Amino acid sequence: MANLKLINPNSLDLSDEILEELSNGREDGEKEEFLKAVLLKAIHYSSLVSYIKLSPNCTSPRNHIIDTITIHCMAGNATVETCGNIFAPSSRQASSNYGIGTDGRIALYVDESNRSWATSSQSNDHRAITIEVANDGDASTGWHVSDEAYISLINLVADICKRNNIKQLLWQGDNSLIGQTNQQNMTVHRWFANKACCGDYLYNKHFDIANEVNNRLNQDNQEEDEVTTTAITASMNGKDTKLTSIIYNGENYVRIRDLADAQSDDKLTVSWDSANSKVIITSK
Q1: CB neighbours of 79 closer than 8 A, spacing ≥ 6?
Q2: pLDDT tens, residue by residue, 254-282
Q3: What is the domain extent for residue 86?
Q4: CA dihedral sign, ordered 227, 232, 236, 240
Q5: How far apart are alpha carbons 4 and 12 in whole angstroms?
Q6: CA-CA 20 to 30 A from 180: which of 27, 47, 228, 261?
Q7: Could you give the CA distance from residue 223 to residue 221 in angstroms, rounded to a whole number?
Q8: Pair (208, 247) in one structural domain
Q9: Same domain, 59 and 193
Q10: What's the whole-model pTM score?
């Protein structure tokens, strides 16, 4: 019998037996980071998410507070599942925190606690939440996005700002203000690489996006201590699993027991040691 004592999300006493069962054959050097990112830390994301496929292409943890929003376009009409599959291989060397499909569904690919690999700038990605948006139009339309995707983008950015204490979204369209978040806290990929991203359609919408998000922030009437639940689909090791997400004050939490059950094919049990204030994960 092997026990896993939860000290805190960043300091774990991990047994090799449990690591093997939970990480399903990952390389030794990846096991501890996998547990931290997937089992215990994959809880910091928007309650608007309906699909999760965590990408290995990230830096954990990010080294800067979240104070910037970077909107990207997919340059194609990919579903959130397809975009997740694109980011899944480590050979891809690319990811984003979120993706939005033309149907308006929102996916998580990199936990907000971690830096995605999105804008060709480490410094930007360490401080930014990055969002890929699907396009229902091609380059001739400026990579147009659907109304459903646009509405979800506004909802998601407003939610990110609320939870990360971004009081106001600021856009000047001036790349000389990168990092000066008291004047501008939105950035675009084209400022860091020779790309058209996020497409002219979304680029020209940045003032509107900032205004609409700021209206939401100013009208925030969310009650404190509100607790609700929602069903989400998480993709782990290529298998889609239904989980219950607990939403508390805008934060999204997943039970450790549910993740352990989904990850280990019923080989583990999870219990709470109230006397010692620790979680015990025991292999059968």
Answers
A1: 101, 102, 103, 105, 134
A2: 776 676 676 655 566 666 666 766 666 66
A3: 51-218
A4: positive
A5: 8
A6: 47
A7: 6
A8: no
A9: yes
A10: 0.68
